[in-house]
Amino acid sequence: MGMPGRTDDHQWSQRHLSHYVEGELRPRARRRLDRHARGCANCGRGIRAMRALVHAVQGLDGLTGIRAPATIFDRVRLAGAGGAASSQNA
Amino acid sequence: MPGGPRSPDPAGGPGAAGGPGAAETEASLVARAQAGDVAAFERLSGAYADRVFMLLLRLLGDRAEAEDVAQEVLLRAWRGITRFRGQSSYFTWLYRIAVNEANRVLEKRSRQPAGVSLGARELDLPGAPAQDPSRQAENSELRRALGQALAGLPPPLRTAIVLRDVEGLSTQEAAEIAGVGQAAFKSRLHQARLRVRAAIGDEVLAGAGG
Question: Full-prediction pTM beyond 0.95?
Answer without folding.
Answer: no
